[in-house]
Design goal:
mainly beta, twelve-stranded antiparallel beta barrel, globular
């Protein structure tokens, strides 16, 4: 029996997840309207360790609009850079959400709507929308976070995640604050693809005939393990952000001798650098 697999990706862009992180780093202290602008650079765009064939990096300005300390909207045009494209517009990712927190817990729910160019080669360009929520139990020793999401494209995929982190906060004289947040995360979700194989059939004493059989398959698997360390320096209305990360992809869909039909991914270091200011 010979098996080939054709993978249908409904991937979530790295930028989508980063928008959620941005909310936690910049929640307004008071219930008032705030507008914030930032610029970010990511050294290795990926979806749970999965990348395009050129292993692109990305640049994205981000504009945030906070109605109050809980309701927010933002938008980020995404520009892709690789060996063939020095600076190419891939699309815009928007989100709207609600988040709240106190000393013991934090809750975030949001919806992401991307608008990718038809010519975009990013792994995540099949995504048409995503709804997600997360809940964190907070304490001085170890924070625990659990989340889930639904991704919409030609098919619907479901994902869950779990993570632990420990927040370290250092204040200096005046308004300057430095925060370090090491985190370990496990991500899981559905993978949908078609499986084609050849089955030999026979009748009585007649010789067998090869028949092509195609099946639709949906599996729920671990997608990646990830370790990161967000570092934020804030002074007045300005923030500087640096987040190195290491991702270990799991359960890559592969087709023997057909790299064009296989998922590309490997253990990789990447980092996000950014700056933000309150307007």
């Amino acid at each position: 029996m010979k098996i080939t697999r054709h993978f249908t990706t409904t991937a979530l862009a790295l930028i989508c997840g980063f928008l959620a992180i941005a909310q936690e780093e910049s929640q307004p202290a008071k219930d008032k309207i705030e507008v914030k602008a930032g610029v970010y650079y990511n050294t290795g765009l990926n979806y749970y360790g999965r990348t395009d064939s050129l292993r692109s990096s990305g640049f994205f300005p981000l504009l945030e609009f906070w109605v109050n300390s809980k309701f927010y909207m933002n938008a980020a045009p995404v520009f892709v850079m690789n060996s063939e494209t020095p600076f190419d517009y891939a699309g815009t990712v928007t989100s709207i959400g609600y988040r709240t927190s106190d000393t013991r817990s934090a809750f975030n729910i949001y919806f992401v709507k991307p608008f990718y160019e038809k010519s975009s080669q990013l792994v995540q360009s099949a995504l048409k929308g995503q709804a997600a929520a997360s809940y964190s139990w907070l304490n001085k020793i170890l924070n625990i976070t659990a989340g889930g999401d639904v991704k919409f494209s030609d098919k619907t995929d479901f994902g869950v995640s779990g993570g632990i982190d420990h927040l370290i906060r250092k204040e200096w004289g005046g308004p300057a604050v430095f925060v370090i947040d090491p985190m370990a995360t496990i991500n899981a979700g559905t993978q949908q693809f078609t499986k084609t194989y050849y089955k030999q059939s026979s009748f009585l004493f007649f010789p067998g005939v090869d028949q092509t059989v195609t099946e639709k398959v949906s599996n729920f698997n671990i997608l990646s393990y990830e370790f990161s360390m967000a570092m934020v320096y804030a002074k007045g209305k300005m923030q500087l952000i640096f987040t190195p990360a290491y991702v270990i992809p799991q359960n890559l869909v592969t087709v023997a001798n057909r790299p064009d039909l296989s998922e590309r991914g490997r253990n990789m270091f990447y980092a996000t650098l950014g700056a933000k200011i309150i307007l």
